[in-house]
Amino acid sequence: MKLAKAKKAKAKASPEPAVVIRLTAEHTLQRTAKRFVSGSPTRCPKCDSTYIGREPAFIHCRLCGKLARIADAPLDLQELWELRSGLRIAS
After folding, report:
1. Which of 1, 22, 66, 75 is the most buried (most CB within 10 A)?
2. Has residue 5 got a pLDDT over 80?
3. In the 3-class helix/strand/coil scheme, how is 17-81 assigned residue by residue?
């Protein structure tokens, strides 16, 4: 008896209306600008630490662990660097 009353007493939350975002070229460029680091930064974009390591295509923060992609760096150089440094085994 109590369960039936409890179920009736709960008010059902109405779902919020959905927001539709058009996927345009400007929207895509705006989102990728947030993900990439431009130039050669000397600080981590997340924690503002100067304890970073520079890889051919990424900036790796040694303090917080953030791995930020450099905007115009080619990924084939990154792959070659990882193979030569022993981070990946050649398949």
Report:
1. 66
2. no
3. CCCCCCCCHHHHHHHHHHHEECCCCCCCCCCCCCCEEECCCEEEECCCCCEEEECCCCHHHHHHH
